Amino acid sequence: MQILKAGKPTGQKVAIIGAGPAGLQAATTLRQYGVAVTIFEEHPKAGGYLTYGIPEYRLPQEIVDYEVKRIIDLGAEIRCNIKVGKDISFDQLKADYDAVLVTVGNSKAKTLPMFEHNICTESAISFLARVKNGELQENELPDHILVIGGGDVAMDVATTLKKLGVSYVTDVAYEEFNEFKASKKELAGTRKAGVTLIDGYVPTKVATNVVTFKHRKLDAELTIKADKIIYAVGQTSDLTGLKIDLQHSESQLWSAKYETKDAKVFAAGDLVDGDQTVVFAVQKGKEAARVIMNTLGGVNHD
Ligand SMILES: Cc1cc2nc3c(=O)[nH]c(=O)nc-3n(C[C@H](O)[C@H](O)[C@H](O)COP(=O)(O)OP(=O)(O)OC[C@H]3O[C@@H](n4cnc5c(N)ncnc54)[C@H](O)[C@@H]3O)c2cc1C
């Protein structure tokens, strides 16, 4: 059923970089206004973290695919496997389109220096993307995996590991339980899945697969030997090849928060607001589309 309708063509065209929830919603809104939209996405599929982060047991991929299809049916073009800044230049997009909206999210894992170049470690978002892509090798997962982090992403990793049949999953978090970033629901689900949760410890030393932690407040040390280590210590943006200069601040008007120092370039979603939620990114994508419409010649806000 076609619920959304494309607006009368305005003759204008907008490029969107990144097919996560912010970019997809912006495309929807712009199509409703009658603007031609092309989304450039570096992955083979659209959806951002809906497709490459949130585990299947929480968000079935068929729901994401259904929503993406509705946006394509609305007339948005989604060009996958194109990394802007590498496969096509940012300047090219600026030359070819009336406006460029950057919604690239926070697609790069933050790391801890001690884990760099360690062959036993992998980032949470790399692991979750491989699970969703069906890229895990048979029998790849060993018996004991250590997860480091206390947010929702760490809980997703730990629970996914248990669902995949890993015997021992230990999650160690810097936060104490009362300050955990993960929602209570996620925390309860992780416990129920059989994950051992340890709070309040900071990793201080790693020797291949043996990690030493110190308690943040107590004079206590903990050493864990695991077969693999997955760290979930946050995400950051990768703006390689994208010449954007964000200029938003809390005190600015809401509309200015989507603008950049380049009058033709706009930004929205996790890239601007830090790690947020899907609903938040959708709202920001919609608002950014309205700001772009105002810049391109005005639109009513009904
Ligand atoms: C593991 C995990 C679980 C989560 N669980 C939840 C949850 O349960 N509920 C919730 O509300 N939120 C959840 N979130 C947060 C939510 O997914 C994000 O807030 C949301 O996806 C941000 O949307 P976005 O469009 O700004 O960015 P993203 O979803 O990150 O999308 C950005 C897109 O841009 C693409 N891109 C990046 N650079 C380029 C480039 N140069 N060229 C082309 N394309 C590019 C990326 O490939 C990606 O597809 C979770 C996040 C993670 C990582």
Helix content, binned percent: 25-40%
Could you tell me the CATH topology label of the largest domain: FAD/NAD(P)-binding domain
Provide the succession of SSEs.
EHEHHEHEEEHEHEHEEEEEEEHH
The quaternary organization reads as single chain
What would you report as the Rg, rounded to the nearest angstrom?
A: 21 Å
Set down the secondary structure blueprint.
Blueprint: E1 13-17, H1 21-32, E2 36-40, H2 49-52, H3 61-73, E3 77-79, H4 90-96, E4 99-102, E5 108-109, E6 121-123, H5 124-132, E7 144-148, H6 152-163, E8 168-173, H7 184-193, E9 196-199, E10 201-207, E11 210-215, E12 221-225, E13 228-231, E14 235-236, E15 265-267, H8 270-273, H9 278-296
Parallel strand pairs: 1-2, 1-4, 2-3, 4-15, 6-13, 7-8, 7-13, 8-9
Antiparallel strand pairs: 5-14, 10-11, 11-12
Helix pairs in contact: 1-9, 5-6, 6-7
The structure holds flavin-adenine dinucleotide.
